[in-house]
Amino acid sequence: MTDRKRKVDIGDLDGKKKKRKSRFSDVPPTSADGGVNPLTGAPFSARYQTLLAQRQKLPVHQFLEQIQDAVKQHQVIVVEGETGSGKTTQIPQFLTLLNAASDKMVACTQPRRVAAMSIAKRVAEEMDVQLGQEVGYT
């Protein structure tokens, strides 16, 4: 039973300390129309491309593959990182795209209503979707 509650360092999932470059570049699929959003079926906007370049510079981006491995291996994961590293905005998007073909949902908690509203707005912009459709808050 104690094995279920253990701290997993996503930087050391396989027991070896090494930095792996993520296979998930977050780049939209290339096609003649410049990429289609898998959530909406519409082409990605120019604003999406601008935000994507900013997102790829966030520290959490280099750990996306390790996060995927951790989610596959464990029922619950806890991610710890510095303020502004992308934990709140990037990980839910990544998990949503991993589950895009299924009917699973990703939920985030935020203790302040105003923060929840602004985060939902930002994530919707970054995902190039309409607030209240694929991304929302209650």
TrEMBL record:
Q: Specify whether Protease is a keyword of the entry.
A: no
InterPro entries cross-referenced by the UniProt entry: P-loop_NTPase (IPR027417)
Name its GO BP terms in alphabetical order: mRNA processing; RNA splicing
In what ranges is there compositional bias, type Basic and acidic residues? Answer: 1-15
The entry's keywords: ATP-binding, Helicase, Hydrolase, mRNA processing, mRNA splicing, Nucleotide-binding
Q: Name one GO molecular function term.
A: RNA helicase activity
Q: Which domain of life is it from?
A: Eukaryota
> Could you say which EC number(s) this protein's record lists?
3.6.4.13
Region of interest called Disordered, as start-end residue ranges on this chain: 1-39
Reaction catalysed by this enzyme: ATP + H2O = ADP + phosphate + H(+)
Q: Does the keyword Cell membrane apply?
A: no
Entry protein name: RNA helicase
* Source organism (scientific name): Phytophthora palmivora
